[in-house]
Amino acid sequence: MDLKALLFSFDGRINRAKWWLAVLIFLISGIVVGLIVGIVAWMVPLIGIALYVVYSIVALIAGIAVGVKRLHDRNKSGWWLALFYLVPAALGGIGAVSGSDAIATLLALVSTGIFIWAFVELICLRGTVGPNQYGPDPLESIGVPAASV
Q: For residue 67, is it within any domain?
C-alpha cells in the first residue's frame, strides 16, 4: 500500500502496524509543519495561520481515513468513528456548560470509557481473520499465519 492510499483512501483494511505507521507520519509531519508554521507566522502571521489551517484539514481527512480502514479491519463500519470522536467531544462540551460538577464528572467518566473502548478496538485487537466485507485480510498478504484459538 502506498502512502497516498494509506492516508487518503477510505477503502479496504489496514492492520495495526500500518495504523502505527500512519501515527508516526502524523507525528513527524506535525512537528515539521509546526516548526515551519512557527517560523513563517513570526514573519507573516496570516500566511502562518493559513498554512496551519490547510495542514489541519489535510491531517483531519487523513486521520479519518486511517481510522475508517482500521475499523474495516475489525469488520466494523467507519461510522463508529463518530461515536469514538464526536460523542466524547459533545459530552465534554455539555459537561462544561452544565454548571454542575457532578454532571461534568459523570460525563467525563463516560467519555473516558468510550476512549478506552476506542483504544482497545483500534489499537489492541487484531483484525478479522481472513477476508471480510471490506476486503482481504491485510496480514495474509504478508504471510502472517492466522492465530489458533
A: yes
Q: How many structural domains comprise the chain?
A: 2
Are residues 8 and 61 both part of a single domain? yes
Closest to 122 in 3D by CA, of 41, 82, 48, 66? 66
With beta carbons less than 8 A apart as the criterion, state whether 37 and 47 touch.
no
Q: What's the pLDDT tens digit per position in 34-57? A: 999 999 999 999 999 999 999 999
Domain assignment of residue 95, given as a range: 76-130
Rounded to two decimals, the pTM is 0.86
Cell of 134: 471490506
Q: Are residues 67 and 36 in the same domain?
A: yes
Taking the C-alpha atoms of residue 64 and residue 4, their distance in angstroms, rounded to an integer, is 14
The whole-angstrom separation of Cα 100 and Cα 139 is 48
Do 116 and 69 sit in the same domain of this protein? no
* Residue 137 contacts residue 128 (beta carbons within 8 Å): yes
- CA atoms of 126 and 16, how far apart (whole Å): 7
